[in-house]
Amino acid sequence: MNNTLQLAEQSVRTTLGQTQGQGRSPGLTMLDLLQVTGAPVGDAHQAAQVPVLTRRVHAGESLVHEGSPAEAIFFVCAGTFKVFCTDVNGYEQILSFALRGEVLGFDALCMESHPTAITALEDSSVFVVLRNDVFHLSQVVPAFSQALQRAGSLSLVRSRDQVGLMAAVASEVRLARFLIQLSQRMAHCGQSPRRFHLRMGRRELASLLGVAHETVSRSFTALASWGLIEVSDREVEIRDMDGLQAFARSTRRPAEGIHAERSVGKVMRRSMAGRRQGAVLRLAA
Amino acid sequence: MNNTLQLAEQSVRTTLGQTQGQGRSPGLTMLDLLQVTGAPVGDAHQAAQVPVLTRRVHAGESLVHEGSPAEAIFFVCAGTFKVFCTDVNGYEQILSFALRGEVLGFDALCMESHPTAITALEDSSVFVVLRNDVFHLSQVVPAFSQALQRAGSLSLVRSRDQVGLMAAVASEVRLARFLIQLSQRMAHCGQSPRRFHLRMGRRELASLLGVAHETVSRSFTALASWGLIEVSDREVEIRDMDGLQAFARSTRRPAEGIHAERSVGKVMRRSMAGRRQGAVLRLAA
DNA sequence: CGGGACGTTGACTCAAATCAATAACCGTGG
DNA sequence: CCACGGTTATTGATTTGAGTCAACGTCCCG
To answer: Is A14 on the interface with B (CB under 8 A)?
Structure first.
């Protein structure tokens, strides 16, 4: 317990240089961090004793650069981040978007440097846990150990959802899946699951989905003309959640031996092909 | 310390029912588990005191079913596993292959049930850590806590590499990237990085790469005809590692503002198109 | 006002999905 | 032993969806 406080003090001192004078911890503690992650808080009193650093990152600013030494991990307190890596040719591959409660930099725990870059898509803030403290805090504050495990695990689930996105054949299906994912994550953050503002541009979306940005545009208008969503620039409203979800379930040719009818997506896109205007769509009713 | 042994005993008792009578722990301990993960072993003596369960899984057998309650996590001790999920239409989406040292089921830590299925591609064995023990062991055996963090982190890195695979435009590039990844992982396991036996079929590979299985076949013959590899069914030999790596770096249209020359892949595929036989290839020499 | 970033839409091309046929392999059982 | 069905892998023919190139409109900021 004594130990705990010492540790925390040291943490603060060590990190101040890191934050580049940007953020001072306004009295936030480990308890706040735990609450943001949604993990069960064991000993709230103990957790409230351990101060935690925060850092503000303005829109477009970088939180970590690719290849920079892995000195800390972060927990998103507010805002949105994009995680990406830039290959030798300058192509920027987006790996995920992170919302409130998610951990950033977990993938660096098994290496010396960050394999990915992270930048803020809007004004955001994070909790900072220095790498050296990760180990100690795990031992001293059991709830933190658990929160880290859960957050890391969630990160993995997200990453695998991402594979599900890119696995879809049709570009419209990829977009539909993304929108549903985002909708659920927004809901989880207490925001409206039916109407939201996209924090990223078409180009970034295209990278995430693994298609050309022109295709993203076309897919948006396609989904809108089916009557599933309504779009205006980055403003999105889901008009037919069930329909969108059904459409998002379209898959690539099913495994042999299972003789289901043709995939929904293709049927729908084919049936829509002849139509001229955004006709109302009856979906596998 | 005393506590440690009690915990372990309990673990053994609780798990015996789970293992379906398949595996008895042949005296393996936490020390063995730590060594397999490659994590630094702190107190070897302590770790050697903590028995750990193992479980054998025969080729084709299932380790966990999708949606089954998340009762344990696993560390691959030997063999190969595939991690996948089956969607409503019966299409089997492969998420990753796991080799020795990697953790399985980490994604279930943040939920009540496994979001993915896991089956063995060959006769394999795993260490079993019950979910309830994960928390306690993390507190009692610091080295385990660290090993779990590292293994989870590695899992995330793998999952993101997977995104890198599917992000590539050309199917031959995807396959090339996969082969290089696998080569490096094989090397990490102490096996030859130039010559290996694929544990998975074309269909499974196709699912992982996000293409049709016919395309995987064609990509294999393409890479072989470039002279980069040699293939015979599931036996693969990399003949030109540098060339393969250069080819694997081909990307989608680079981000605007960076005016690099056309992507390597397209050029190569174009220049190869005219050739009839597996000519020797000079790559960006 | 002009330059730049962003988004949409159209036209064209081509790579990969799909459909189909064949070959090789394997375990089973006559 | 071979015949058989089932699975897997390869290759060919055809179609189509998405990448690419290009033009255009909008918005914002200097």
So the answer is: no
Q: Is A224 exposed, middle or buried (0-12, 13-18, 19+ CB in 10 A)?
A: middle
Give the per-residue pLDDT at B268: 52
Output the pLDDT for position A87: 86
Q: Does A90 touch chain B (CB under 8 A)?
A: yes
**A169 to A192, B77, B174: CA distances (angstroms):** 29, 35, 16
Which residue in B226, B224, B228 sits closest to B239, CA to CA? B228
Alpha-carbon separation of residue B254 from A1, A8, A60, A203 (angstroms): 53, 44, 20, 12
Specify the pairing of strand B72-78 against strand B81-86.
Answer: unpaired
Put simply, the chain B residues between 244 and 263 with a CB less than 8 A from any chain A CB are: 249, 251-255, 257-258, 260, 263
Distance from CA of B29 to the nearest CA of A (A): 21
- Model-wide pTM > 0.90: no
What is the 8-class DSSP label of residue A284?
Answer: -
The shortest CB-CB distance from B150 to any of A85, A110, A153 is to: A110
Least confident piece of the model among A202-216, B99-113, B243-257: B243-257
